[in-house]
What does this fold into?
Amino acid sequence: MANIANKFSENVPGQFYVDNQCIDCDLCRQCAPTIFKRQFAGGMGHSYVHRQPLTPREKMVALDTMRACPVEAIGCTTPVEQTDEYHDSLGSIGLFNAVAVA
Ligand code: SF4
It folds into this structure.
């Protein structure tokens, strides 16, 4: 589970962030390139949130990406269960499930 106390300084202020558990696997940057970018320095890389999602669709993608992170390095300051996007997604097949069944 991501810990806001350990979030990278590059994250822009807002609901979503990446913390120092990131293993630089690239998944979030592939899934949501408008939200996540890579910081590379000193031979090490990691992702960070460079733009917070604005639209309901972008928030849904950010939530799906957060759930897909293999090390739970993506955090959300609003509990996911309390977001409108989460409740809306329960009635749908979701972004990644849609890819899996395509
Ligand atoms: S999906 Fe998770 S581990 Fe992979 S680059 Fe993004 S934040 Fe890091």
Observations:
- The chain has one domain: 4-101.
- Strands lie at 16-18, 36-41, 44-49, 74-76.
